[in-house]
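$ fold --in a.seq
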Amino acid sequence: MIYPPQILLPGPTPVPPSVNLAMQQAMSDHRGSVFTKVKEHVLRELNELLDVGLNGGVAVLPTSGTGALEAAVQNFLLPGDKVIGVSTGTFGERFVQIAEKMEVQVRHLRVNYGTAFDPAQILDVLQEEQHDIKAILVTHNETSTGVLNPVEQLANLLNRVPNPPLLIVDSISGVPSVPLKVVRNHIDVIIAASQKGFMCPPGLGILAVSERARNQIIAERPGRLFFDLRPYLEGQFPYTPAVSLWYGLEEALHLLAEEGESQRLARHQLLSRISRAFGQASGLTPPVEEQFTSPTVTALQAPKGISPADFRNQTAKLGLQIAGAMGPWHHDYIRIGHVGAVLPEQLFEGLATLAHLLPAGFDGIEAAWVTWHNAITVDEEVHSK
């Protein structure tokens, strides 16, 4: 029997069997009564999950995460508009690049790779610009480095500013694994995608929009047609949707609700601690400080004497797919994805595969096991009280 390779990537991520099964349902008319029930159910669940409020909304587009970023720029910004673009890694840089390609004027605030942004610094830049800023573009969870940025703190500071700019957040590798809410956290736009924490294949871009942002959607934006959010936010399908993916997303949302939001976050935080413990003990030192570390992806130093690409090729021969780093980290680091439908035992199995290729691999496995075991012990003690 040929076994499929194990995936420990920050995306695409493993798809649960029940989600795969849901996507095998017979094709149906996307404007007919059968599929309308699926659409309404999915949108209702997403509205609640992302807390858009009574007059906000969610748009689900047949596109990738980058397409969803582009849709955000096309709907809220015109050529000549001024924004602050904050980048802590490759995907923050991409968000800025998208805005610049659409002739938006970007005050680019770059933060060193491996470090989170400072909300106070962003507020200082906003004051320097004398509030002549239409939006702030930030990344919640920087996939390229494994950094979790303090978006909630930034949003709280902006909430005290009179007539603040729109806060548009790329949380493609964040939500729903790391909770972020439109109303509760004072976010204007949250951007997500199907292939990470939502445990579906790639192909759906998700934008959660506040009431304030919805009222600021540009009516006529040069060059925009497919990505006009207005019909999507009304629950319409202006163009053919990815029908099978919607069936899968419906089942994935059911699985997420069964697990529970706090339990989901706790699972991802445990996976992060296991990965860091393995790296520290096996000589693959994590470059990101623990206070900034992401719950969904962990960057590790590549083994000495071998390039990340060659090391990944070796792991692939053993049936394990891991990711390389990006940008200036490309030649020095690897990334372990532990997002979506990944359980501790699956992560442990993947780390055991890595251990076969490392001189101190057994030490790493022992450290990972102790971290996992201690978490189980604490959990049992909590539930026994």
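$ fold --in b.seq
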Amino acid sequence: MKQRQIRHTVGRMAPLALLWILAAAGAAPGKDDLQVYLLPAPTVESETITLEQIGIVRGDETLAAQARAVSLGRFSVIGQQIVLDRPTVISRLASCGIASDQVTLRGAEKVSVRRNERNLGSDRLASVALAMLKGLNPAPSKIVLIRTPRPIALEAGHMVELNPRLTGPIQGGLARVCVEAVEKDKVIAQQDILFGVKYLRHRAVAAEDLAAGVQLTSGNVSIETGESNEPEPAGWTAPYGMLTQQRVVKGAEIEPQRLAPVEAPILVRRRQMVVVKLETGRLLISSLGEAQGDGKVGEFISVKMGSDKDSRVIKARVRPDGTLEPYHEGIQL
């Protein structure tokens, strides 16, 4: 395996470097000499860097074996690059009992070492986050990437899925998406991405000056569509039929907090004689009763049925025509 890695590395070197290695391999070094050719930009497989991984060592076999195993550093984070210069290499060899006068260094003045990793590029991360934002309901009408994300570097051999999620509610026209690299239900890396978003939403605008207490209609209100930093509230409808609580000038937006619903009239009064009707298919039964309280359309009130001696009180709902519909234990009769 080591010989195969060395042949692969040598194959990518400049012709002069290759000639030096071949000459060094055929030379007869001194008894205690060590010759090291440093590679300029090697890629290693392990977290720990050894001299064997960044250079080609020749010389006394016992001394060479000792030198090849010398540790020159360790990767602490994914995507890290470690730069080693010649003085650092000499120092590390000396700390392991190999004196500087026993070593001849050739090749690169500085070695830039990287670990064999898999990069998930900025474009791929941004496209995953963008697809998620476009799938929201409601979806933004405009999405702009504010800051390009940093790539995610993974160790070789990892098979991951990219899962995007919002890190919080969309506010002030900003959407923050976290893209997670997940392997076997475990998040092994993640990156936050910031977008600017706009939404199309409707707004009610005064078509004329409106005094307080005016009921809104299609004649005095215009509905416009424009961009906003926030999505349109679910179930938005034109505020026709609402009353203004304060004056609104022509062209100004009519905000919901400045409106009030029209007060529904009381349709049934206390002690009023009412008709209670029960309709079931082809059967229609009606009877007179006495309302025990005031009621508006849709409200439930108590109704006294029968004479004082054999009377009973039932619950009934007020209909738009002023009649009442009997209920019993919450189930329509």
